[in-house]
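Hi all, posting the design record for the shared folder.

TITLE: backbone redesign
STEP: 1 of 1
STRUCTURE INPUT:
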């Protein structure tokens, strides 16, 4: 994910386009009802 975000940031910068990067992560330590497949991954 880190390398992908770096590549995207360079691409946006070189194209002169503003952008936002939003990372979404799973918090498996507090439990996630109905998301066992995400926790297992």
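Okay, here is what came back for every position:
SEQUENCE:
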């Amino acid at each position: 994910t880190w390398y992908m975000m770096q590549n995207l940031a360079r691409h946006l910068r070189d194209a002169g386009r503003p952008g936002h990067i939003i990372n979404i992560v799973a918090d498996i330590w507090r439990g996630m009802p109905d998301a066992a497949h995400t926790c297992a991954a």
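COMMENT: The chain has one domain: 2-40.
Let me know if anyone wants the other runs.
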